[in-house]
Amino acid sequence: MTHQNFAQGGGTLPDKAMVNDALGSIKASLTTYANVISECSNPNLRQTIQQIRNADEASQYELYKLAQAKGFYQPATMADDSEVQQVKSQLSSG
Prior knowledge:
Elements: H1 3-7, H2 15-39, H3 43-69, H4 81-92
């Protein structure tokens, strides 16, 4: 069953597509939260949005682990220690 068939009412959305859609939605929400937090002057509202963002980040990570376990997502190879140090140096010297 293709994504197009689902859109036309021909069946259920495959698990991979559902997971990818959910991950994309959470990613967009996290970006929005970051923008709202950076512009929020009300401390109580800012803290509330930060708590919501933190919960979404935790949900995103759980969904990411599910996607990886099911083979829906193949992460890039991990950076070695020298690459990590290089990025740290670049960010701290900016």
